Amino acid sequence: MTSVIRRRGRSLVDQVVDTIGQDIVARRFPPGSQLPNETEWCERLQVSRSVLREALRVLVSKNLIDIRSRAGGRVRDDSEWNLLDPDILQWRSQSGERSSFVTELFELRRVIEPAAAALAASRITPAQLDDLAAALAEMTAAGEDSARFLEPDACFHRIILASVGNSLFRALGQAVTVALDITLRLSLDAPQGQQQSLPFHETVLDAIASGDSAAAAAAMLTLVNASERDVTEAQAAGAKRLTPSRPPPSKIARR
Questions:
Q1: pLDDT attached to residue 4
Q2: If pLDDT is split at 50, 70 and 90, which confidence band does 170 have?
Q3: SS3 117
């Protein structure tokens, strides 16, 4: 039975949007399928009709569903979903297709971030450059404390995206920021730790500071590729930890 995902600091409407959105993205309601009617939803989720209707309007705006009079709600084909919507990105990261989705996230990062670094080399302001250096200093100070390392790492990349000063980059920026957050969190358990990524960040900073666009793009591509390796290794390590150990054949009881 579907239940509302309760999260502090989020409105009840947002929680209902999360609950239904995750069910749709996880294919518990496949594309083309009919959704429960209002009465069923309200009973399942224990919410009022006004809350439900507002949540459904949000899902319509994300192109996840259609609402038709009398026919109720229907899940739209996934080719019509707003896949760069930050909520949909988060829901996909929590679904059963994580491996292929992570591959797509890094493909997006490889397209956007080296280009952003190249533009940043000629456009970044002195204040933004100082902020970039400060973020790197915080990453260094964090050591192997993954929780402390995450925010300055994400901040480092956000500063570069913001420094481009391009309205279309800003439109993509939120999606890329979510992609960053997801992939950085997935890399927290990388066996080599976090500090091994610092030289890659330093190379990006040096190239941007020197105004070398080509070097900045190449350095960012190297950094993104290294991040993908970290995520792959972290996921492999996590899977190994979750694999139940078996006794050696000689210790298995014979029947």
A1: 56
A2: confident
A3: helix
Per-residue pLDDT of 17-59, as tens digits, reads 999 999 999 999 999 999 999 999 999 999 999 999 999 999 9
Per CATH, the number for 12-80 is 1.10.10.10
If residue 75 lies in a helix (H) or strand (E), which one and from where to where?
strand 72-75
Token reading at 49: 């009709």
pLDDT in tens, 112-135: 999 999 999 999 999 999 999 999
Q: Is the distance from CB of 113 to CB of 222 less than 8 angstroms?
A: no
CA distances, 69 to each of 66, 83, 118, 219 (Å): 10, 26, 50, 54
Burial 12-42 (b: 16+ CB within 10 A, else e): bbbbbbbbbbbebbeeebeeeeebbeeeebe
pTM equals: 0.76
Q: List beta partners, residue 75.
A: 65
At 251, the pLDDT band (50, 70, 90 cuts) reads: very low
Residue given tokens 């209002």 in the structure block: 38
> Could you state, in order of their start, the residue ranges of all structural domains in the chain?
12-80, 97-241
> Which one, of 94, 90, 76, 251, lies nearest residue 180 by Cα?
90
DSSP per-residue string spanning 211-253? T-HHHHHHHHHHHHHHHHHHHHHHHHHHHHHHSPP---GGGSP
CATH number for region 97-241: 1.20.120.530
At 66, give phi and psi (nearest 5°). -115, 145
* Contact between 51 and 117 (Cβ < 8 Å): no
- H-type helices in 124-212, by residue range? 126-142, 146-163, 167-186, 198-209
